[in-house]
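Worked example

This section walks through a single chain of length 292. The input is the sequence exactly as stored; nothing has been trimmed or padded.
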Amino acid sequence: MNNFVKYENNPILGGNDLGTCFDVYVTRDNGRYRMDFSWRPKKSVAVTFSDDGINWEKPQITLGIDESSGWEEDINRNCVLKIGDKYKMWYTGQANGYSAIGYAESEDGIHFNRVQKEPVLTRERDWEGYSVMNPCVLFENGIYKMWYAAGETFEPNVLAYAESKDGIHWEKYGTQPIYSNCPENDYEKDRVGGCQVLHTKDMGYVMFYIGYRDIHTANICMARSDNGIDGWERSKMNPIGIPTPNGWDHDSCYKPSALWIEEDGCWRVWYNGRKGDDEAIGFIYKNGRELF
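Given that input, the structure is written out below as tokens.
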């Protein structure tokens, strides 16, 4: 079983021209690749498009800050779904050391408007700490399903789950996180963070997530579950993305976003890498379907 390989011409977005770009969410939209990402210098979320998943167009801001709200001095860490003719976005708003999750909609997938001024998901439980962030939402059988990170604001600690009938009013699952760090694994012994979940026919729910060796060192990992909530099985391939010494991602590999590219028979996982204070976006790939 071959493992993931880094694209030789990484990074593919960010750096000197755009500044820090991070926490991507990649989908296919009208036959093209769509990448929603966080744009730190703009304190906003943005979108860019590509025909090959490598060469990307000039980004456009999709949602900016709303300082009047009291919880959105920064906007980042979003996901976007197209349901019918409408684009739906869940995003992270940050202010005063706290994070919450908001919701916006768009007709064209570029210009988003908030549905309400208040967040749709906030911290409520002790283990959610200061922040809920990094939403990943699927829409299945009339139900919105959200996986989100919670805990500290600088880097979250655990992953949790919630469901909604309208994408606005959410019911959190259980009383505990659904996924936590594994002290036996050096690459994720400290905490886990931002994830993307895909529902597959052959492997159930597959989760690509951040595993932290320590708060400053992150790796990309995978796990699977039959129902996307419990019974998670970590991949024997973990970690699938690790920092490259002296490379553009020397310190950390963060927030993965994965797609199975059917026409090429391969997986691609986009992520943001960090070296010092500089962050940009690249990807790893693997030929063949097997992940576990």
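What to look for: The mean pLDDT is 96.
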